[in-house]
Amino acid sequence: MTTTATETPTQQQEWDGMDTTQLFRELRAATTPERQERIRDQLILMHGNLVRYLARKFANRGEPLEDLIQVGTIGLINAVDRFEPDRHIKFSTYAVPTIIGEIRRYFRDKGWNLKVPRRLKELNLAANRAIEQLSQEMGRSPTYAEIAESVGATEEEISEALEMGSAYHAVSLDTELSDDTESAKSALLDLVGETDESFRRVELYAQLKDAIQTLPERERNIVHMRFFKEMSQTEVAKKLGISQMHVSRLQQKALNQLKEVMMRSE
Amino acid sequence: MNHPHDVVELRIPRKPEYVGVARLAVSGIASRMDFSYDEVEDIKLAVGEACTSVIHETAPEHVALPIVVRCESAPDEIRIDVVNIRPAPRKTPPREAADAPISQLLMEVLMDEVEVRENEDGSAAVRMVKRVSRDEA
Q1: Interchain CB contacts (distance < 8 Å): A and B
Q2: Which residue from A minimizes the CA distance to B42?
Q3: Cβ–Cβ contact B38 with A under 8 A
Q4: What homologous superfamily does CATH list for B6-136?
Q5: Distance CA B126, CA B82 (A)
Q6: Which string of b and e fits B77-94 if b means at least 16 CB within 10 Å?
Q7: 3-state secondary structure of A32
Q8: B45/A168 touch (CB, cutoff 8 Å), yes or no
Q9: Chain A closest CA to B130's CA: distance in Å?
Q10: In angstroms, what separates the C-alpha of A163 from chain B's closest C-alpha?
Q11: Helix (H, G, I), strand (E, B) or coil at A154
């Protein structure tokens, strides 16, 4: 926006007191390009808040607010240039659809509709990570408010992301993956992995190791003798100087505790 | 997935914190139809605006009355009524179309049809329609 020497601060103040309608009259009546420019600038600046207000309503769709304000301002400038004060509608009535139109066009031009909605996907991932982490830290399942705070989103956004984030756009497993080369066509299903049993077993062993550490010493010894040294209950009983019945009870108690610990860490 | 004209009706307290509940419910319904992500967001925004303006217009003696949000999903469009239940109409005359509030202008841009009406029983309602459009985004 340019400033020229012909406009004095006094004139600037004269405009400050004017409402939009008066300014538009001044604008249409202005005879010099410099004066027109100054009044136009004034009108645009006066409605910056309107643009920010509207842009904020679109701020949760994954685009930076600053970008939305910028494209919204383009809409505002267009509205200022095209508005005809004689049509007896308020400028804001004319400007709001123009500004929103520009913001929505911005989303449309991004090809947003065709992509998987990134915001929901990312939010879904972030929320799931937060749930896992918070559960570990607090030893209980976190509330939505806690998840929202940890992720930096609203509770509403979290509910939505958890409800729909992962399944927003259902894609068939038989979808052919686009491939321009001559290579054999593959379907999405071909790429879906399956649970790796040996990995699973490694994890289980690690969990079991930790779980065994939580047992009292005597139970731990019993588990060791029974399942690692493969001794019978009677042999264990003799070694510990207790009855076979007692070994059986302690073994059962130990196994239950292991089960419980491992279920919790799943 | 939708049978023709499935109806979901929601009554929410006139408190800003429940606007999100209405938005979520509508989002759940609209996203099961053939709307794009941006269209669902548009519908949510319009419903949020409608509920918020009801809350703003609420006279102190009417705070206990619920806001009714009624969604009807047809095969090719969603129709949403946001009803401001009131025992009597407002004293002030209906606004001129020329200075419709910004919230209404927003709804009109976001939805295909917006109709504001005052009912016989004193309640007011805004009906919004969004059509499924496959080609024009």
Answers
A1: 62
A2: A58
A3: yes
A4: Histidine kinase-like ATPase, C-terminal domain (3.30.565.10)
A5: 5
A6: bbbbbbbbbbeeeeeeee
A7: coil
A8: no
A9: 16
A10: 9
A11: coil
Q: What is the DSSP string of A178-227?
A: P--SSSPP-BHHHH-----HHHHHHHHHHHHHHHHHTS-HHHHHHHIIII
CATH code matching the domain that covers A118-191, chosen among 1.10.357.20, 1.10.10.10, 1.10.472.10, 3.30.390.50: 1.10.10.10
pLDDT at B97: 46
The pLDDT of A151-171, averaged and rounded, is: 71
Contact A113 B20 (CB under 8 A): no
pLDDT band at residue A13 using 50, 70 and 90 as cut-offs: low
Q: Which of A49, A83, A100 to probe by mutation at the B interface, max B CB count within 10 Å?
A: A100
Give B13 to chain A, closest Cα distance, Å.
16
Q: Give the ipTM.
A: 0.79
Candidates A83, A110, A159, partner chain B, best to mutate (most B CBs within 10 A) = A159
Low pLDDT (below 70) residues in chain B: 1-4, 88-99, 134-137
pTM exceeding the 0.80 threshold for the entire prediction? no
pLDDT at A165 over 60: no
The residue-averaged pLDDT of A9-23 equals 66
User: What sign results for the dihedral spanned by CA atoms A90, A91, A96, A102?
Assistant: positive
Beta-carbon separation of B102 and A163 below 8 A:
no
A157 against A56, higher pLDDT: A56
More confident residue, A248 or A6: A248
Asked if B27's CB is within 8 angstroms of A160's CB, the reply is yes
* CATH value of A9-110 in 2.60.120.340, 1.20.120.1810, 1.10.10.60, 1.20.1090.10: 1.20.120.1810
Number of CB atoms found within 10 A of residue A247's CB: 24
On chain B, the residues whose CB falls within 8 A of the CB of A163 are 24, 28
Residue A5 banded pLDDT, cuts 50, 70, 90? very low
B20 touches chain A (CB under 8 A): yes
